[in-house]
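During the reporting period the student researcher (J.K.) took over the structure-prediction task from the postdoctoral fellow and processed the backlog of single-chain submissions. One of the processed entries is reproduced below for the supervisory committee.
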Amino acid sequence: MHDTVRLDVIRSKQGFICDMDGVIYHGNRLLEGVKEFIDWLHAEKKDYLFLTNSSERSPLELQQKLKRLGLIIDKEHFYTSAQATAAFLASQHPEGSAYVIGEPGLIHALYEAGYSMNEVNPDYVVVGESKNYNLDTVTRAVNLVLKGAKLIGTNPDLTGNIEHGIMPATGALISPISLATQREPYFVGKPNPLMMRHAMKRLGTSVDETVIIGDRMDTDIIAGIESGIDTVLVLSGVTDIQRMKAFAYAPTVCLEGVHEIPGDAT
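J.K. obtained the following structure tokens:
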């Protein structure tokens, strides 16, 4: 399935950007060989970052989730689309305000970036994954955008994985607002190369030294390709071989899962 030489090149990289759902876990189940992969990253003194398009949880909550699954990892190793969105907004309009449809992870990231919450005349309407999404919040968002607020999505994902199926994600939730206002949202998360640049800056690694590992061709792999870094598609998530072949581009390496990366090291 994979070229041994290419896999050796992947192993030689210094910076590893790893998607989470479908790569590290599925729902509340740790995937095969993940602990050994993390041990290998530490043993080889690699720099690594868990990058997620989900804006729902904060790095601390993600750290606690992995702890429940048996992995002890410092919260500095997590980076979310909520953090990337907050950094982007702070660079565009420092100390601005936003009306947010989203979970505490997104709201906390915006507060940390110097933003305030505003339901009257915000600079931005920001949409992420939300369990409190309803017609009232959508109606408010539509009218704020029509009054001049800019429309931002934390990521373009249409669906997210849950243990027994899928759920609508940000791309689907923001769609009624975009359709009603005739305004196109700007998405910060993968495959936007902006999020990848943020990740590499945090890692302190160059394009040539970095690889992204993910389970989605339309976010993880295209984000790596458009950022100029090598890519590893793992088949432990939503993509199988047939789906992979349907795309006009290909990953550098395709693996069954991250358990293949350490090789004989473990």
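The committee noted the following: The chain is about 40% helix and 20% strand.
J.K. will present the remaining backlog at the next meeting.
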